[in-house]
Amino acid sequence: MVIQAVKNIIENNAPQAKTPKLEIKEVGKIFKTKSGETTALEKTSFSVSDGEFVTILGPSGCGKSTVLRIVAGLEEATSGQVLIDGQEVNGPGPDRGMVFQSYTLYPWLTVKDNISFGLKLKGVTQKERDDVARHYLQLIGLEGFEKHYPIQLSGGMKQRVAIARALANDPKILLMDEPFGALDAQTRNIMQEVLLKAWEESKKTILFITHDVEESIFLADSVYVMTARPGRLKKKVPIALERPREFSVKGSVEFAQYKEELLSLIREESLKAIN
What we know:
Layout: H1 2-13, E1 22-33, E2 36-48, E3 53-57, H2 64-72, E4 79-84, E5 87-88, E6 96-99, H3 111-121, H4 126-139, H5 155-168, E7 173-177, H6 185-202, E8 205-210, H7 213-219, E9 222-226, E10 233-238, H8 253-274
Parallel strand pairs: 3-8, 3-9, 6-7, 7-8
Antiparallel strand pairs: 1-2, 1-4, 4-5, 9-10
Helix pairs in contact: 3-4, 3-5, 4-5, 5-6, 7-8
């Protein structure tokens, strides 16, 4: 009796395992073609914790973007399931914000109205929309540009607005598909720092697709490396660099060690793809 009582106390006071914010369970994708079928993604499983910044890295055509589109609900998985807070994803939804590589701003709306567009659809008052837009304009460093139109902005500025718009809608997860891939190297480095600043404030869960090894290390808590097509998870590499991160960390010995490891993993898969 006493032993059982002690067991009950221990069980009741034991820390409960938290449900991951995002769970990808045995998700696979087969595309049908005129000549038959192409397996783009083998059954893949991994999870992302609440507030975690995860990057997915892999050779071209390995299924990175396919994974992201399935999580976004833009692509239907052939097998498996995606769960957000334990609830299965069955299509697009406001709980996921998406930032693409291409600039997806509305050209007829100002910067401020682009940022607050989703809030307007939700019926949020004008004052609240203005307050939210003002906050994110300050966060992304575009104060003074609120009345500009997308055509008046540089590529980097457009992506800042796209990120601000996604965050303004307060999604549970931010999905980013190589958002800086079209930018020049200097602008790309600046945008990485802008994104980290926004993430450190919002603590949103982020799933970020990239083919840039340095970018994946600089941004992430964990890097998921995928195999060559048909893609599957090859290795998870936790990144133990101190936060908040400054650009100077890219010159550190630790950063170089992560870069060497990841380049080796990617090279192995890239060679398989051409052999």
